[in-house]
């Protein structure tokens, strides 16, 4: 046992002692948000930090675990909440547990083969089980950073390819102040209606 067995972190900031987080700025999410005009404006307007992950991947081999603390900032592009890129595990059967530490959010889960989609709350005192073969994305629906812990098998690996090609079938938009999951096509129609209504008001 040569690697450190203890990790200290701050549940409000997601900072992990001795670990440099990997930062993901908005320009890494090109083509993923519904409102491309609002997206491009936000990138030009300072390209904000959307999320960072501090990964602890010290142990390797069968039965070992990796884990990471994620920090997802609050914010929206149009009416779509900030989210992480999302991934499948390279080793498809690998599951994961997510534990909410602070903030308010959701996990979007989509089974790779059946396409079945679910949203589950991610917030303090909740654990979300992500089965194998399931693409997962974290969404911040609150006003503060969403901080969470993810624990996964050491052999899981990350596969971003399918999300890069196809994104998720569903989106989560703010409608009358509340998060609502919609099919992407339905959401595009909703979004253009909002734009027409806005133009009519001006
Ligand atoms: Ni994962």
Account of the 3D structure:
With 202 residues, the chain is an alpha+beta fold. Helices cover 16% and strands 37% of the residues. It is built from three helices and 13 strands; from the N terminus they run E-H-E-E-E-E-E-E-E-E-E-E-H-E-E-H. It has helices at residues 36-44, 161-166, 184-201, and strands spanning 22-25, 49-56, 65-72, 76-77, 80-81, 96-102, 105-111, 117-122, 127-130, 134-140, 146-153, 170-175, 178-183. The strands form four sheets. It has a six-stranded antiparallel beta sheet with strand order 1-2-3-11-6-9, with no helix packed on it. A three-stranded antiparallel beta sheet has the order 8-7-10, with no helix packed on it. A two-stranded antiparallel sheet has the order 4-5. The mean pLDDT is 95.
